[in-house]
Amino acid sequence: MDMNTIPVDPAFRKDVLRCFEDGSHAIPARWLYDRAGSELFEQITELPEYYPTRTETALLKKYCSEVGALGGEGRAVIEFGSGSSTKTPHLLEAIHPAAYVPIDISGEFLAYSAAQLKPVFPDLPIYPLEADFMHPLRLPEEVLDQPKIGFFPGSTIGNMIARTSVDLLRSMRETLGVGSQLLIGFDRIKDKDLLIAAYDDSAGVTAQFSLNLLHRINGELEGDIPVDQFRHVATWNDRYARIEIYLEAQADVAFPIEERAFSLSKGDRLHVENSHKYGIRDARLMLRAGGWTPVQEWSDESDYFSLILAEA
Ligand code: AVI
């Protein structure tokens, strides 16, 4: 093998080929996050139209001390999908945890976030865990006997369909144990135009983020998809209460992927992401279905975003 070749994840190959072979024309959103995709997502979080990150960050700054007072003080913080851990310091400062366990599939992100947090919290033991948090996990030995609080910000749960979200909440309960707490972010249902603008920004960064998936297919799977023949489309599906992201062919296109020939007609769409939004009762119900009892919730003045503290 060429030393510069990135080994292809067989699950990526399977999902991409299935999308075209069975005509489902859907690719799971997890594949949006290669290195370029993760960098573009960081840019999205700073866009004027993308309200979730700044709204949730303001809630964390304002209310994390209440999490401490509601039993969070001194617990070990277990963060699911910690990424670059940008929101974590607000929680760590407020509840003085016994330890911090960032969980991420990317070892690179884990090393980065540990390096960022170490100088700010020199006395905090950090035990990074490189793993897929969608399944129950064995936590590091050092925190097994400590009271724990899970942290799942960003409304990342919104990128999953309801059944997967509930499965994940159950897995988290199994990983953390009865008596644990969970602090989780939910993006709320709001004006359709605001939602669409957040997922189709005027600078075109979100479009680049979704179109990057086609570049990834070309780079990793010997594809030759004409990326410039596709456009990013964000729609609001009211029945499912979610933003749906598609890549729409602007002309009839034919292209190979790993020497197999595929084609799409003008107007055909590839479904690449869902981002569900929640009424506050939907969020509470989802938590209960996953084995978590909501204890307290905090929202901004416009009810754009909510943080919920729950107990197992
Ligand atoms: C990571 N996740 C919560 C983002 C969202 O808002 O659904 C992903 C995203 N996709 C396009 N913009 C943001």
From TrEMBL:
Transferase listed as a keyword: yes
EC numbers: 2.1.1.44
Gene3D superfamilies assigned to the protein according to its UniProt record, in alphabetical order: Vaccinia Virus protein VP39
Alphabetical list of InterPro entries matching this protein: EgtD (IPR035094), EgtD_Methyltrsf_superfamily (IPR051128), MeTrfase_dom (IPR019257), MeTrfase_EgtD-like (IPR017804), SAM-dependent_MTases_sf (IPR029063)
Enzyme class of the recorded protein, top EC level: transferase
Alphabetic keyword roster: Methyltransferase, Transferase
Example of a GO MF term: L-histidine N(alpha)-methyltransferase activity
Any Pfam family: Methyltransf_33
GO BP annotations listed: methylation
UniProt cross-references to NCBIfam families, sorted A to Z: egtD_ergothio
PANTHER family: ERGOTHIONEINE BIOSYNTHESIS PROTEIN 1
Protein name: L-histidine N(Alpha)-methyltransferase
Gene: egtD
